[in-house]
Fold this sequence. Notes:
The complex is a heterodimer. Chain A is about 75% helix and about 0% strand. By secondary structure, chain A is mostly helical. About 0% of the residues of chain A have low confidence. Chain B is of the alpha/beta class. In chain B, about 35% of the residues lie in helices and about 30% in strands. Chain B is built from twelve helices and 14 strands. In chain B, the strands form three sheets. A six-stranded mixed β-sheet of chain B has the order 6-7-8-3-9-10, with helices on both faces. In chain B, strands 2-1-4-5 form a four-stranded antiparallel β-sheet. Chain B has a four-stranded antiparallel β-sheet with strand order 12-13-11-14. In chain B, a hairpin with a 2-residue loop joins strand 4 and strand 5. Chain B is elongated and about 75 Å long. The termini of chain B are far apart.
Amino acid sequence: xxxxxxxKTIRDNWKAIMGWGVGLGLIxxxxxxxxxxxxxxxxxxxxxxxxxxxxLQSFRFLLGEPVDVSTPGGFLTWRIxxxxxxxxxxxxxxxxTGSTRGEEESGTADLLVTTPHSRANVLLQKWLGYSLSLLxxxxxxxxxxxxxxxxxxxxxxxxxxxxxxLNIGLLAWFWGGLALLAAQFVRSRAGxxxxxxxxMLFTYLLNNIAGSLDSTRWLVYASPFFYTSINKPLVPGSxxxxxxxxxxxxxxxxxxxxxxxxxxxRDSGSTVQLGTGRPQTAPxxxxxxxxxxxxxxxxxxxxxxxxxxxxxxxxxALYCGYVAGLANLLLPVIKSMLGSSNSPLSRFAGQVLTGNxxxxxxxxxxxxxLLAGYALTQVAGWAGEEESGRxxxxxxxxxxxxxxxxxxxxxxxLTSTLIAVVAGLGILIGAAVGGTDLDGGKIVAGVVSLVxxxxxxxxAGFALAAWLQRPGAxxxxxxxxxxxSYFLELLAPALKWPTFVQGLSIFHQYGSPARTGxxxxxxxxxxxxxxxxxxxxxxxxxxxxxxxxxxxxxxxxHWWLPLLLQAAx
Amino acid sequence: MMQVxxxxxxxxxxxxxxxxxxxxxxxxxxxxxxxxxxxxDLTVAEGEVFGFLGPNxxxxxxxxxxxxxxxxxxxxxxxxxxLDCQRDSVAIKRLIGYLPGELALWGxxxxxxxxxxxxxxxxxVDVKFVESLAQRLDLxxxxxxxxxxxxxxxxxxxxxxVMHRPRLLILDEPTSGLDPLNQQEFYAIMREAQAGGxxxxxSSHIFEEVERTCQRVAIIREGRLVRVASIHEIISEKAHRxxxxxxxxxxASEFSNLPGVTSAEAQGNNLTVMVQxxxxxxxxxxxxxxxxxxxxxxPNLEEAFLQYYxxxxxxx
Lengths: 569, 316
């Protein structure tokens, strides 16, 4: 696997191939099994399709054009296939930028381009490695999907499922290409990935939202998702449009061609110079020796997370406001759906009688999971600080170790509170604009209870990072625990597990305060757990040998990400 | 905001025992079953420049990370200015300046921001002094740390280690990546620090650097200290090499039994004698013969070091 660049790229990706391949396969397979178990006969499926019809229409802005869901393939197409290119696109953007711009950041690219390979050759080999890795992920996911269908007696057809995977994969391939192109213009790997992922999310929503209104339907042609959504191989009787199939790969090749051309012309480790190329530096006298955000550990940590804080806050506020604003419109549809069918949704959602109920179900059952993701990014940042060696110089200044860890954790506590408050404000403003009736007290309870929830996840991550030899491993451990905890809360009632088992889930302890009001016991349990875990983190950090593992593998595409994203969906 | 150092350090400076800058007693570190360092005993006097020599993986960085409290000893203890390295860790860090062997700082901060932040964590430093150091080392503080070359990154590391005028400098390969001109400037900065009363603990692979700057050195091998002595002592242990040319053959046996002679080999009119210690008896004996030429090779630290390791390898 070290014979050439493309094999080395696949070698670097093998964990991601297994994680994403199995993860995506399981997501599709479990949906298929759940569908087949809930609606075992054709009559059940037809009845369910009729019941779901209004919901499909109402949620087209999120889940795309409605299709006939009376077949397993149709259900999968509506429920999960549309979002798959987004999930896989995230991996594609992270993977491509990691092996190209990431290597330029770490300096290893300099070594590669000084071997007897042209720059075009280096980049194309990396692209080949990425493409084959993507293919391996798709084949794994296809195998699991197909076998799941056979096991659940809900066969979706081997060719149809293979074509579906190809359709998903080609769009993800394009997002990788766009990330590669973006990496020619920005110096950081994270920046290039963020551009590609941001554009992907924008065009995904553009396709779904603009497509649901006659006046804006023309906009969908600007979204690559539109062309991918034309082909629905899993829907029985649908035909394959080769032209639509070829749009994503053609765009990917254009991006690749441009990226190769630009990479050959620019400086290694630098970016394409759009201006005069002269370095712009401030005059010496302009050095600001009084930058307040460098005064101490706390404000420096705050400075480090300010961009992330802004993105999370703005994103959540907009999303929460959007959903809360729509709740009034969706309420009659949801009410009739839950009243007219014996769908599993009613088992999880319970009774939805008011706009407040709908906001509680649609937002507050999902916000904790999303914010657990925020906590995980903070744990990853903390672990990276140690693994990269940056903590070493900090710890040789007159700061005690408890001061260092508590300052960092304090920033998480502050930013978590800010994010929760901003999300709450988004809900209240959205509801006011959309005319949704909310119970202000309960919404505040839901928002306030988010804070100890996030802190438990962060404190658990810090504690594990303090006690594990390699602090970065804490991110994966806690990621798995969050996912298990989420599914425990989701499945325990349906599987009739004992109450104490369900009580082990932090999601259970969070409860549903936005619906039932402030839960003092759950809040106290989470707060005490956060304090105990933080104390353990401080003790562990005080005792540990500071690790130094060389260059930090920041932003490595984690295998648990698809599961977390799917759980959020 | 950066403050003037004198205002702050005078307030924080602890009462410490005078005499020893570093005292290491029976210090051991194991990583599971893997060896770090074993039973180190070492002292560094206040005001002394002390060299720490050893090949890669010998335990130099482990020792430095132990005394800076980045890692914890399996047994033994270390103190700096009489303060326990673990118990009084924070107080010690007010007195030291540290330059790691592999410097990692924040790529998104400029050189000025990096120094400002670390200065603030130290309670404030004299901005004028920082700017003068940057000027002497020809470092542009306006650039982002990630965009610096290796040598410029090292300059930021050097400045952050000395900018608060510490009483003890702990430097791991300080001139790594510096060009000769900047190396000279660094030596000047170090001399000034020493003249101001600072002690220096210097780990280096550059023998010339250690030989010209250090008073004493410790040699570490496979985690154990094998020698602690003054530079002069170590060099004098190394045999001088004297190459004589005579106008006629001279028997080697006449020299081999002289005091300090470790070997004597004759080849035609030439004679090579290895001498440890004083060369006077050999020169006097040679003077009795028709001497045409004499070439002497002064031993240096590098030869002494290599000889030490060859001896150790042979003993294994």
